[in-house]
TrEMBL record, chain A:
Coiled coil: none annotated. It comes from the Bacteria. This is Xanthine dehydrogenase family protein subunit M. GO terms for molecular function: FAD binding; oxidoreductase activity. Residues 1-223 form the FAD-binding PCMH-type domain. InterPro entries: CO_DH_flav_C, CO_DH_flav_C_dom_sf, Diverse_Substr_Oxidored, FAD-bd_PCMH, FAD-bd_PCMH-like_sf, FAD-bd_PCMH_sub1, FAD-bd_PCMH_sub2, Mopterin_DH_FAD-bd. Keywords: FAD, Flavoprotein. Pfam families: FAD_binding_5.
Automatic annotation (TrEMBL), chain B:
It comes from the Bacteria. Pfam families: Ald_Xan_dh_C (PF01315), MoCoBD_1 (PF02738), MoCoBD_2 (PF20256). Residues 32-138 form the Aldehyde oxidase/xanthine dehydrogenase a/b hammerhead domain. InterPro entries: Ald_Oxase/Xan_DH_a/b, Ald_Oxase/Xan_DH_a/b_sf, Ald_Oxase/xanthine_DH-like, AldOxase/xan_DH_MoCoBD1, AldOxase/xan_DH_MoCoBD2, AldOxase/xan_DH_Mopterin-bd_sf, PaoC-like. One of its GO terms (molecular function) is oxidoreductase activity. NCBIfam families: peri_hyde_PaoC. This is Xanthine dehydrogenase family protein molybdopterin-binding subunit. It comes from Sphingomonas glacialis.
Length: 316, 734
């Protein structure tokens, strides 16, 4: 860990401005990911702006019948909120499928959206990694890639977005609300929030430097049966090999998003029309253009089979 | 005390304390945070500086340049130790690679520098400022490739291949046969407490507060590595937060703490960070095992061959995965051998049940496969091939062998009858459910072990030995032994462990710790009883020790009186004759598992596990059970998830943290049961005990793999049995 300075922000706009004007500054909320990365010198901020005093920790109903989740609502509070459990079950289930109780108590909504990949080559500073050190190459390509991406990846990076909550957020068409360093607010549809790596895998989101997430809004509930099926090697406390978030309506129509396979929560709206025909009809469209490695080719099959399991679960 | 004839009746047989499921006497210290571990010795070392280890960034090569200017100038830095600054160092008898590398690099994350600073954070930040250039050289990292043409390994003057009868002829003509290859990956000990040492010099003498299983071995290796007399080295390791074989030997923390403290002129503490442990320290080597079994239609094995290959750094040793196959089943024609390839990965070495753990993972799948080929129940097949004698030397009987009882009683308890002989028959919703069984086997090893026992005027019995408690319950069983022998309550016994100033014990390894260390305490107590009897003018043959008193005929004294103001002290060791040669001393288990496989996703979940163990006298059923359930959990890890992933381009274990190297969590282990069969083994020691700490692991992995096969109908021969290996063969999506 490099020595760093630390300050606490008192308003979102001030926090955003402070990070924008201070060289190599970062926000810290729960710190469940950032502190680990700092200890390993994967992240080396010179200055931290702590945003935990900003009181963005409420869940409120929106005028159009949705929910507005403050950026610093903890994962535990979000997953256990009665409205979330009733109307957005897939979100609650996705959150509790991740991490551990202790981590979920500390992790925040905004921070969780921004958690970084678990690619083991990203985590080892002796190895080449374009995401950690732009231009250094990608040691994961041709290396141990069982956990890594099969779609949306590039010649520069095959890392995945590792989280669960964002997969459900993507399924629910959430919107990320932010404040920019100039004080202007904006709303980013989650479909546009994550960037594919291309030749710049170190750029992971649409956020500009200093831009602070203030809330995530969910549109009004769409009903249906909510499923989050996370597949991993052990029963708990592991990142997904593949996770399937699905909402299935009585007529068999619905939505599906997949975690563990791509640099972002993976959803292809055009593939969803085939849901009534089953997993085998959806998967080729969902995974069109997939480029798995030797180690993770099984994920193609696993997506289809996990979706099939989810559809059976949805029927009850 | 020489133990060379089977034990007769002795005071341990009273079983007033020994054999009782009492709570750990050290439990309250651990649960209240007052048990001092190596990195937290504030109680004895004031104001230590902090050392941070720098590991090599390449697997093989040479440091071409090292620039430490910025690190030396960083805040708080006191000194930096490198191979160059340390001067010539020796290498311990139990180490393969040097603990401080440079300029030559032997493996990834080999320690090459120690930064010592006022705080841990300063040392860590400064360590990142050291600039090192390497001249990388080609290495051998792919075990399967390197095993081609690798030489047969022979143990110290023994022939490299064991042959009994004519395996080739018998296998060639056997009506039913199996020829299959199984692989096990590299495993990490992944114990809770990282390697850690606090070092303090007084003149030319060094005291090392460390976390170590084998004090005397390690004291010798510290002296050898540092080039100082053994008498100038003291190791102290009263509490060990898990070792599993990873702390049998000294590692970089010990030597670097000593060197750092010398260079800084003040005490230094060093711990390995978790991401460094996987490549810096030792691991259980991967194996590629070929097993051939031939049998008659009656189910009797006529030919059995087990050939294993593994790799290690130059000068290292093999994973002895064939050893159990020489003893476990009958069969007239037998063959075992091991090949050892040179690989430039981190150092391979012992991990809990070395040899048997991976060996049985393969052999006990092979037995399951053979049973199916024969149309026999897997238990009946094992029973049909039981042997009460060493199959290679039929004149040697097993001292005790209740494998058949373990399997048959376990079958009743587990409901084995409900298992479908045909796989993939039982469904529970989307899950396919099956049962598996495997035999467990691990030898009982006799090791010299000494102790000192003192009685003071308050009637307190103090036992001192360099024996270690690695979370196993040693403190407690030693207290039980001394209480039994001296006729006092447990709370009158004080146990002092893990200090090289104490008499040399067997140490903790190879599941030999419990039997041997308590037998050493027994020997010392016998001597103390004699000293007490002599002092009181008793004939020691008819003296009894009970209720804090010593009696002979109608004369009786309180122990407090007998001790007098000066107290009494006795020291002795248990030393063994050749009973271990006359008899084959082993422990046995039947492992039973019910597992479910998701018919679509291939996820595997264990539903319940049972171990039935026959392992001599169980000294404390509670701590023994804890050992076995812990071992079963480790077996679940080996079967389902543990796998150090080798990058064969760069030569390192890629998943080197606990997020990447998965071990079981609570949710993986829903239900475990352990049964101990009544057994005493008079040939093992005066304690008539053996060991269970490794037996509990031996065979578990195969029982799980066999249960998965019985559930899914898909046989996986490459551990771990992860879903990607059977997914494509599961029932198609409807």
């Amino acid at each position: 860990m490099k020595p760093f300075s630390y300050a606490r922000a008192t308003s979102p706009a001030e926090a955003a401005a402070a990070v924008a004007r201070t060289p190599n500054a970062k926000f810290i909320a729960g710190g469940t990911n950032l502190l680990d990365l700092m200890k390993l010198q994967i992240e080396t901020p010179a200055h931290l702006i702590d945003v935990q005093d900003l009181k963005l920790d409420r869940i409120e109903e929106t005028k159009d019948g949705g929910l507005r989740i403050g950026a610093f609502v903890s994962n535990s509070d979000l997953a256990s909120d009665a409205r979330v459990r009733r109307d957005y079950g897939v979100l609650s289930r996705a959150i509790v499928a991740g991490a551990s109780g202790q981590l979920r108590n500390k992790a925040t909504t905004a921070g969780n959206l921004l958690q970084r990949t678990r690619c083991p080559y990203f985590y080892d500073t002796n190895q080449a990694c374009n995401k950690r050190k732009p231009g250094s190459g990608c040691a994961a390509i041709g290396g141990f890639s069982r956990q890594l991406g099969i779609i949306g990846t590039s010649d520069a990076c095959i890392a995945t977005y590792p989280g669960d909550m964002a997969v459900a957020m993507r399924l629910l068409d959430a919107t990320v609300e932010t404040v920019r360093p100039d004080g202007a607010a904006r709303a980013i549809p989650i479909a546009d929030f994550y960037k594919l790596p291309g030749s710049t895998p170190h750029i992971e989101t649409a956020l500009v430097p200093g831009e602070l997430i203030t809330a995530v809004t969910l549109p009004k509930p769409i009903g249906g049966t909510h499923i989050y099926h996370k597949v991993r090697d052990r029963a708990s406390y592991a990142f997904a090999l593949v996770s399937v978030a699905a909402i299935v309506q009585r007529d068999g129509s619905g939505r599906v998003a997949v975690g563990g396979i791509a640099p972002k929560p993976w959803r292809v709206e055009a593939a969803e029309a085939a849901l009534p025909q089953g997993a085998a009809a959806v998967t080729p469209k969902l995974l069109a253009g997939a480029k798995p490695t030797h180690d993770n080719a099984f994920k193609v099959t696993l997506v289809e089979r996990t979706l099939a399991a989810a559809l059976i679960e949805a029927k009850g | 005390m020489k133990f060379d004839t089977p034990a007769g009746q002795n005071p341990i047989d009273q079983l007033k304390h020994v054999g009782k499921p009492i709570d750990r006497i050290d439990g309250k210290f651990k649960t209240t945070g007052t048990a001092p571990y190596a990195y937290e010795r504030h109680d004895v070392v004031a104001n230590p500086a902090y050392g941070y280890v720098v590991g090599a960034a390449v697997a093989k090569g040479r440091i071409s340049r090292i620039d430490m200017a910025a690190a030396k100038a960083a805040p708080g830095v006191l000194t930096i130790v490198t191979a160059e600054s340390a001067g010539p160092l020796g290498k311990g008898n139990f180490n393969t690679a040097k603990l401080l590398g440079g300029p030559e690099i032997d493996h990834y994350h080999q320690a090459i520098a120690l930064v010592v600073a006022e705080t841990f954070e300063q040392a860590r930040a400064a360590a990142a400022l050291i600039v090192i250039d390497y001249a990388r050289t080609a290495g051998r990292f792919d075990l399967a490739k390197e095993l081609k043409g690798a030489p047969l390994h022979s143990e110290k003057g023994k022939p490299p291949v064991t042959k009994i009868g004519d395996f080739d002829a018998a296998f060639g003509t056997a009506p039913v046969k199996l020829d299959a290859t199984y692989t096990t990956p590299d495993h990490s000990h992944a114990m809770m407490e990282p390697h850690a040492t606090t070092a303090k010099w007084d003149g030319d003498k060094v005291t090392l507060y460390t976390s170590n299983q084998m004090i005397a071995w390690s004291k010798g290796d510290v002296a050898k590595t540092l080039g100082i007399p053994k008498d100038n080295v003291r190791l102290v390791s009263p509490y060990v937060g898990g070792g599993f074989g990873g702390k049998l030997f000294i590692r970089a923390d010990v030597i670097l703490a000593a060197l750092g403290a010398k260079a800084a002129g003040r005490p230094v503490k060093v711990t390995l960070t978790r991401p460094m442990m996987f490549n810096n320290t030792t691991h259980r080597p991967a194996t590629i095992q070929r097993i051939r079994i031939g049998a008659g239609r009656d189910g009797k094995i006529t030919a059995i061959a087990h050939e294993s290959g593994s790799g290690d750094l130059p000068g290292g040793g093999p994973e002895t995965a064939v050893s159990q196959t020489r003893l476990l089943y009958a069969g007239a024609n037998r063959l075992t051998s091991m090949r050892l390839a040179v690989v430039d990965l981190p150092e391979g070495n012992a991990m809990r049940a070395p040899g048997e753990a991976p060996g049985l993972m393969a052999l006990e799948i092979a037995m399951d496969e053979m049973a199916e080929k024969l149309g026999m129940d897997p238990i009946a097949f094992r029973v049909a091939n039981d042997t009460q004698v060493d199959p290679e030397k039929p004149e040697r009987r097993f001292s005790q062998r209740q494998l058949v009882q373990c399997l048959e009683q376990g079958a009743d308890r587990f409901g084995w009858k409900q298992r479908s002989a045909k796989p993939a028959q039982r469904r529970d919703g989307q899950w396919l459910v099956g049962m598996g069984v495997a035999a467990g086997f691990r030898n009982s090893m006799a090791m010299k072990s000494a102790a000192r026992v003192a009685l003071d005027k308050k009637g307190i019995v103090t036992v001192s030995t360099d024996m270690t408690d690695i979370g196993t319950g040693t403190y407690t069983i030693i207290a039980q032994t001394a209480a039994e022998m001296m006729g006092v309550d447990i709370d009158k016994v004080v146990v002092q462990l893990g200090d090289s100033d104490h008499p040399v014990s067997a140490g903790s390894g190879g599941q030999w710790g419990a039997n041997n260390s308590t037998a050493g305490v027994y020997a010392a107590c016998v001597k103390l009883r004699e000293a007490i009897a002599q002092k009181l003018g008793f004939n020691s043959a008819d003296v009894t020790f009970a209720d804090g008193k010593v009696r002979s005929g109608n004369r009786s004294f309180a122990l407090t009186e007998a001790a007098g103001d000066a107290g009494l002290v006795a020291e002795d060791a248990i030393e063994y004759g050749d009973l271990g040669k006359t008899y084959q001393q082993s422990t046995f288990a039947g492992h039973f598992v019910e597992a479910a496989v998701h018919s679509l996703t291939g996820e595997v979940r264990i539903r319940r596990m049972l171990a039935v163990c026959a392992a001599g006298r169980i000294l404390n059923p509670k701590s023994a059970r804890s050992q076995v359930i812990g071992a079963m959990t480790m077996g679940a890890g080996a079967a389902l998830m543990e796998d150090l992933a080798v990058d064969t381009r760069f030569g390192f274990f890629v998943n080197h943290d606990l997020a990447g190297y998965e071990v079981p969590v609570h949710a993986d282990i829903p239900h475990q049961e352990v049964m101990f069969l009544d057994e005493v083994d008079p040939t093992s020691s005066p304690m008539k005990a053996k060991g269970v700490g490794e037996l509990g692991l031996c065979g578990v992995g195969a029982a799980i793999a066999n249960a998965i096969y019985n559930a899914s109908g898909v046989r996986v021969r490459e551990y771990p049995v992860t879903l990607d290996k059977h997914l494509a063969h599961l029932p198609p999506v409807a």
